Amino acid sequence: MAKSNQRLKPTPEFSTEAEEREFWETHDSVDYIDWSGAQAVTFPNLKPSTETISLRLPAPVLSDLKALANKRDVPYQSLLKLFVAERVAAEWRVAAGRGSLSNKALQPTSRSRKKTKRAPTARG
C-alpha cells in the first residue's frame, strides 16, 4: 500500500554521490518516494562498459586456460577476465600495504590521456 504524499518524508539534500549512496543503503525509499505511479522500463540499447583488446598468449597457456574454463563450465574469456581482475586487485593491495605508492599513484589512470605519436618503423 502506497503512502499518501502528506506522509512522505522529505528527501534530504546530498553534497556528494557517496553521501547519497550511503543514505540510500541505510534507508527505505518507500518512506521518501511515492512509487504508485512508477512504470517499468527497459534499456535495450545500452553499450557494454568493456573495451575490446587484442591479446596474444602462448598456445600452451591458452590451452590450459580453456581446459580450466571447461572444468568450471564457463567461457574462457570470462575466466581470463576474472583472473586478471583478481590479480590486479591483489597487486594494488600489496602496493598499498608496502606504502610504496603515493595516494596519487593509487588513483586509476586517466581515460583522457594524450596519445603520443610513434616514430615510423620499417617493416620488411
Secondary structure: elements and pairs:
Elements: H1 17-26, H2 59-72, H3 76-98, H4 103-106
Descriptors:
0% strand; single chain; mainly alpha; elongated; 124 residues; 4 helices
Polypeptide structure, described:
The protein is mostly helical and 124 residues long. Among the domains are: 11-37, no CATH class; 59-102. Helix content is 41%, strand content 0%. It has 4 helices and no strands. The chain has helices at residues 17-26, 59-72, 76-98, 103-106. It is elongated. The termini are far apart. The model has no long low-confidence stretch (mean pLDDT 82).
Instruction: Give the SSE string.
Output: HHHH
Low-pLDDT segments, ≥5 res? none
Total number of beta strands:
0
Mean pLDDT across the residues is 82
**Approximately what portion of the residues adopt beta-strand conformation?**
under 5%
What class do helices, strands and sheet pairing give?
mainly alpha
Percent helix, as a range, is 40-55%
Give the CA-CA distance, first to last residue: 75 Å
Largest pleated sheet: none
Please work out how many helical segments DSSP would assign.
4
Q: Name the shape in a single word.
A: elongated
Gyration radius over CA: 24 Å
